[in-house]
Amino acid sequence: MFLGDGMSIPTVNAARALLGQRNNKTGEEAQLSFEAFPTVGMSKTYCVNAQVADSACSATAYLCGVKANSGTLGVTAAVPRRDCQASLTSSVQLDSIAAWALADGRDAGIVTTTRVTHASPAGSYANTANRNWENNAQVIQDGHDSELCRDIAYQLIHSEPGKNFKVILGGGRREFLPLGILDEEGTAGRRSDNRNLIQEWQTDKANRNVSFKYIWNKEQLNSANSDLPEYLLGLFEGSHLQYNLEANKTTEPTLTELTETAIKMLSRNEKGFFLFVEGGRIDHAHHDNMVELALDETLEFHSAVAKATEMLSEEDSLIVVTADHAHVMAYNGYSTRGRDILGPSNNVDKDGRPFMTLSYINGPGFRSHENGARADVTEEPTFRSVRWQSHVDVPLDSETHGGDDVAVYARGPNHQLFSGVYEQSHLPHRMAYISCIGRGQHACNGATVLAPYVITVIVSLVTIIRSVY
């Protein structure tokens, strides 16, 4: 499964235009890799208690098959956010589709450009009342016992199913290291329990007598590709990976390179595998109104999907591409075809001031009005720099998500089951039905349609499932 975090439909449309324009074409006619998939559907992204989803409740929906409360991961809506005690009973804790795959003897892994403990990837392995409990100190800060409610990094290393993931690639070293310890690039650890979870991961694999490697830069990734271990942990930044446009390409791998390594790792299991791949920094750039970075991250995501389609057969590999939620970037104006997607519209406002083709409803890019008129953003000295913020209407410290439905693109066996409009929580059940894992009816046991109870709601990424029947 591939997840473009915050990849709204306007984001897809604008990234498509940017792709074409980077190739010296008008842009509107271009096509992203996943737009060529034979089936497209729409999923509804709201949380149980919120009209507009965050990445935690949405991850619980598309990975665990259950709608949840905003800010919670891998637990039902019986758990309010930050309620440690309510999250402890097994009846409220959910298994993800990654766990279903492992239970069937397949392999599983995660790839992300965010911290591996961030909300979206954590939906595949964590059960927690607060997405922010990435390390034990954050649990304690909220007034809870971190021995009782384990933090997300701890769960990845020591709990089911995370400890059995064959490949974990992303950022977030700081969540695994104790206070006072600096990682390889000088980022300070954030754990107050004096635990080094990176070392503990390595000790666990050594005790199991399996081959393993911990890596933290591109050179080590390239070396690992020449002799892949059974287990691979790659943490390439203290926090999130750098934006693709700003990254040092000699030291930091791209999402496409990480995806390729993960598929090589997992393809060795003849029964198949589940892989979650997230282009997570699309979301972060949108929150900061940095539209060029958001679209470039979308194009890198497109490249990662293209690599997956190149490596995996359409006959036995289901690839599902979607988003967890939308954003409030607008694609607007009446510009002529081929006009610079990152520039101002052909039109001007009622005061004769230019406005951008891509702008935001809210966020930190607000400019104060002068004598009732908007500022002319094209006259700013940083205009069109990579980190330039597009203008907004409502001033906020961080741009909000949008409540729009998001697109679901599918390729592979029974891809047609992803057409239509449905709850986001249907996604893992449909994937499980097709790949013959988890509970309920399966495509390979003679069922010809989705049984209603398979997709019933019990209370926003790319995912790949490979099945060999």
Automatic annotation (TrEMBL):
The keyword Transport does not apply. It is found in: Cell membrane. Its main location: membrane. The keyword Metal-binding applies. GO terms for molecular function: alkaline phosphatase activity; metal ion binding. SUPFAM superfamilies: Alkaline phosphatase-like (SSF53649). Its cofactor is Zn(2+); Mg(2+). One of its GO terms (cellular component) is side of membrane. Binds 2 Zn(2+) ions. SMART domains: alkPPc. It is a lipid-anchor; GPI-anchor. PROSITE patterns: ALKALINE_PHOSPHATASE. Mg(2+) binds at residues 5, 118, 120, 278. It catalyses: a phosphate monoester + H2O = an alcohol + phosphate. Belongs to the alkaline phosphatase family. This is Alkaline phosphatase. The lineage of its organism: Eukaryota, Metazoa, Ecdysozoa, Arthropoda, Hexapoda.
